[in-house]
Write a structure and sequence with these properties.
This protein has 250 residues and is mainly α. The protein contains 10 helices and no strands. Helix 1 runs antiparallel to helix 2, helix 3 packs across helix 8 and helix 7 runs antiparallel to helix 8. The two termini are 26 Å apart.
Length: 250
Amino acid sequence: MSLWVYAALFLVIATGSYFQTVTGFGLGMIIIGVSSGFDLVSVPFIANVVSIVTLVNSGVALHGKLHHLDRRIIGAVMIGLIPSSVAGVLLLDYLNDGFSRVLQLMLGIVIIYSGVQFAFRPTQLKHTSTRASFMISGLLSGLFGGLFGMAGPPVIFLFYRQPMKLVAVRSMLLLIFAASAAVRTVYVVSQGQQDSHSLSVALMAIPIVAVMTIIGRKYPPPLPAAQLRRLAYSVLVIIGIGLLVSAAVG
């Protein structure tokens, strides 16, 4: 890779690390979206990098905040997410490209509709959702992650509507995405698909990720909770539009 590609890639990683620290999501979506959109590197390459830097970001961001985690909720999400992540990857091999694009279009439409609804009315539920709801959101997130590399939306929508403090929402999302990244990394390594180049780029990015995560912890954007929720939903709308464009072009 040329010097400017390295510089652009590390800038995107820095931006994604800060955003994920203050919202609980977005690192993989931002890095993979921008990198593939500007054709900086291949998607499999940057996906391997994202899996590793996600673990670093979550480790630094969660330091001292583990007491905000609700183990019952996390466990319910993991029950659905871990097996469906593997199922999504395997299912991708059996779907033809046309059917996969139809699913991608449907996912994009649902994300945009839900994001617009919540962005204009970033209200919370009165009561915490049921354990089954968290399990289903984890299942859908894992499936979408395996199929499209886009695991976030289902759990993000559900968590941001819960009657919880934002610090708890962010902390649990960070842990969930760290677990998803760990599962993917183990799978990639077991299949012999972790190349030395992506590993070296990830190692070089670790200091950048750590610094931007610390900055995100100490200097979050000065927005009230409702505005931060609105920002999160707006980003999801942009992601949904990206899915629609990608599916249409494909």
